[in-house]
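Protein in question passed on here:
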Amino acid sequence: MRMSDDKLDFLNFPISEKREYLELLRKQCFEIKSKQLIIGQRIINRLYPIIRNYSIEIQGEENIPGDTNVLFVVNHSNSHDIFTAYEMFSLLDRHGSVMAASGFLSPVITQIFNISNATLLDRRIKKERHQSILSLSSKILNGYDGLIFSEGTWNLHPYLPMHNIHKGASKVSLITQVPIIPTIMEYIEKDELVTSDAQLFSKCIIRFGNPIKINLSDDLSFQSACIKLKMGSMREKIW
């Protein structure tokens, strides 16, 4: 079998070799032992509702399977998203790990995320991107939900609902064999003038779509593009 490197780019492998490769990756993920705690998640759940000035409205919770953990794939629009994601886990009574870019976080926020079971990575380093996929997969295989902001950066476009979706989410879903839950976080702005970003929003709508299963037969770029279209449609309906 062609296993000369640790890359996940196996799109040209025959199906039998893809299955074998994914099985090896699953074994590797089971061997990764996370030393992170979840006390930070409790801190966020208790303190952030006091800090934020917007309510959270959950829609489509019935679309989340109750018999398995899942991978939430979420749009990314502002600095509140990661904190909102951990509040979302609390409201759903689920435990999860959020994949978060660490390159520009303050030391305090980095430490909070470290003890929140977050999966931190520096997107500028290719090896870290690969390792973060295995790390998040290991947590999912050990019973946590996963959450990825798969656009990779904030979408501040005035009318484009979604940037392109990176293939990392599809790779994690293939490794762990859990469904992707397309998720939109849409922040509703207040009508009046405000003096700070903290006062800008009246509420955040979190809407869950139907589960998506990633398969070995179709190209991952194509499947990621389909997720983008699905999430774009979900967000446009909220608009």
The first helix runs from residue 15 to 31. The chain is about 40% helix and 15% strand. The CA atoms of residues 15 and 216 lie 7 Å apart.
